[in-house]
């Protein structure tokens, strides 16, 4: 993963496992448990857990097959969490 000047992390997402790791890092950066994120989104904690684990599902299998077949690359960008004052963490 590379760091951009905007205090975020960007990385290529070649498969469901990598997507799951990026989602997990985003959740952790927000200080949320799987249960809290699930409640916020109206999902089950199990669904969040399976998504973060990169568990194969029809949607992700088809998505990544289509990306590969079309030569399209998927990237995800993770912003650093805001500082305690709501700012970007810089003084």
Any key phrases for this structure?
47% helix, 4 helices, Helix-turn-helix domain-containing protein, three-stranded antiparallel β-sheet, 434 Repressor (Amino-terminal Domain), flat, 91 residues, disordered C terminus, alpha+beta
Description of the structure:
It comes from Agromyces aurantiacus. Pfam families: HTH_3 (PF01381). InterPro entries: Cro/C1-type_HTH, Lambda_DNA-bd_dom_sf. This is Helix-turn-helix domain-containing protein. Residues 23-78 form the HTH cro/C1-type domain. The structure is a single chain. The chain is an alpha+beta fold and 91 residues long. The protein has a single domain (9-79), classed as 434 Repressor (Amino-terminal Domain). 47% of the residues lie in helices and 14% in strands. It has helices spanning 16-29, 34-41, 45-52, 58-70, and strands spanning 2-4, 8-12, 75-79. A 3-stranded antiparallel beta sheet has the order 1-2-3, with helices on one face. β1 and β2 form a beta hairpin. The longest helix has 14 residues, at 16-29. The radius of gyration is 15 Å and the shape is flat. The protein starts with a strand and ends in a 12-residue tail after the last strand. Residues 84-91 have low confidence and may be disordered.
């Amino acid at each position: 993963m590379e760091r951009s000047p905007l205090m975020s992390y960007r990385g290529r997402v070649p498969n469901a496992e990598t997507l799951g790791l990026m989602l997990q890092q985003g959740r952790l950066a927000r200080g949320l448990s799987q249960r809290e994120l699930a409640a916020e989104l109206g999902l089950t904690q199990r669904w969040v857990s399976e998504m973060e684990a990169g568990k194969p599902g029809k949607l992700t299998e088809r998505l990544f097959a289509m990306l590969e077949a079309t030569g399209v690359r998927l990237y995800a960008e993770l912003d650093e969490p805001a500082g305690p004052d709501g700012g970007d963490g810089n003084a």
